[in-house]
Amino acid sequence: MADTEPESPGRRMSDFASSNNMSLTVMTFNLHRDRVTDGQNSWEHRKDLCASVINKFSPLIVCTQEGLKSQLDDINALLPGYEQFGVSRKGPDDPSDEHCAIFYSRDKVEKMDGGTFWLSESPSVPASTSWSAEVPAIATWVTFQLRGVQPPGFAFQIVNTHLDPKSSRARRRGALLIWQHIATLPPNLPVIFCGTFNTVKESGAGRFLLGRSREHGIAGDLRDAWGGSRRRRNGGIVYTQHGFRGEKQTAMDVLKLVFMALCMCFDRQNQDLHVDWVLFRSRSLAPVYSEVVSDRGNNRYPSDHYPLYVEFQLPRSVIRLEEELN
After folding, report:
1. What's the rounded Cα separation, in Å, for the pair 33 and 197?
2. Dihedral (CA of 151, 159, 264, 238) sign
3. 3-state SS of the chain?
4. How far apart are CA 284 and CA 205, in angstroms?
5. Beta pairing, strands 276-281 & 3-5
6. Residue 14: what pLDDT?
7. How many CB atoms lie within 10 A of CB 321?
8. Which of 114, 145, 175, 293 has CA 20 to 30 A from 237's CA?
9. d(CA 136, CA 213)
10. Which residue from 267, 226, 273, 277 is spatially nearest to 253, judged by alpha carbons?
11. What per-residue confidence (pLDDT) applies to 21?
């Protein structure tokens, strides 16, 4: 079972990494769509804080959800060391809707290929919906190579999604469609699957992806980075969607959590009700540290979701190029 780290200001993920191994770091971060009605929680008041959180952890990869083009452009301007990839739910010709954009450190990883498909019966058709989905949902993927490592060419794929907020059937079928994409990839290619799943891991979509149940006769084969991490920070935060209230939940929120637990939605293995996950498929990656990021500034949270940060340990055979030269 993973150790849960106590609160320790200033402690960073690198404290837990082996000095003999390189790491691959990712963050999944639901930015919360910019809405004028959010008042003090509007994007104008949060954008610097969002950039500050990303800058503090400096992950190689940041998978964002809900971001509009203007928000993503702000992140790019505030964090010039990152590039972004992705299109809106309406497709490349209409950037006005939400994106599942993937940000990556241009100096540390190289984008090799990428694309987006829609979670519907017509996955190549922009804005298409199926299975009683409330809104279009997409999966954006990018294949990367690490820069400056020996041997060269260590590649991995990132998949980023935001599943439907209302229809459990749409979430299950969307999860199946994404898993079918992952299943077509070479077995030796590490895959990290991030996103806002709008459900918990004990749901139909979660149990399928984690191989605990079947969808259309198929069982997934992914693993949960949070549950599998050697060390975790903020393990007492059982939910990742907090509605800008943080841990100051209302009585109704508490009752909802109790109801979900009684309905066996509570993840018995990991004791969480997270809706923001980092899953992975790989024999060469090992999650060594995970953190539910609860940072805030000026009595304000960067989003209505907590970001989730994960550090994966790479194989010992992968070393920095300068170490090989020495």
Report:
1. 16
2. positive
3. CCEEECCCCCCCHHHHCCCCCCEEEEEEEECCCCCHHHHHHCHHHHHHHHHHHHHHHCCCEEEEECECHHHHHHHHHHCCCEEEECCECCECCCCCCCECCEEEECCCEEEEEEEEEECCCCCCCCCCCCCCCCCCCEEEEEEEEECCEECCCCEEEEEEEECCCCCHHHHHHHHHHHHHHHHCCCCCCCEEEEEECCCCCCCHHHHHHCCCCCECCECCCCEEHHHHCCEEECCCCCCCECCCCCCCCCHHHHHHHHHHHHCCCCCCCCCCCCCEEEEEECCCCEEEEEEECCCCECCECCCCECCEEEEEECCCCCEEHHHHHC
4. 25
5. unpaired
6. 46
7. 14
8. 175
9. 25
10. 273
11. 75
Residue showing tokens 């605990």: 212
Q: Which long-range contacts (CB under 8 A, 24 or more apart) does 121-129 make?
A: 123/177, 126/87, 126/89, 126/90, 126/91, 126/92, 126/93, 126/94, 127/89, 127/90, 127/91, 127/94, 127/97, 129/170
Residue type (1 letter), 73:
D
The amino acid that residue 181 corresponds to is H
Classify domain 21-247+274-325 by CATH number: 3.60.10.10
- Residue 32's nearest CA partner among 46, 13, 20 is 46
Tell me the pTM: 0.91
Please give the pLDDT value at position 263: 58
Question: Quick count: other Cβ atoms within 10 Å of Cβ 62?
Answer: 30
Q: At residue 266, what is the residue type? A: F
> Any idea where the domains of the chain sit in the sequence?
21-247+274-325
Tell me the CA distances in angstroms from 133 to 39, 144, 165, 181, one per residue in order: 29, 31, 8, 20
Tokens (6 digits) for 300: 């304000």
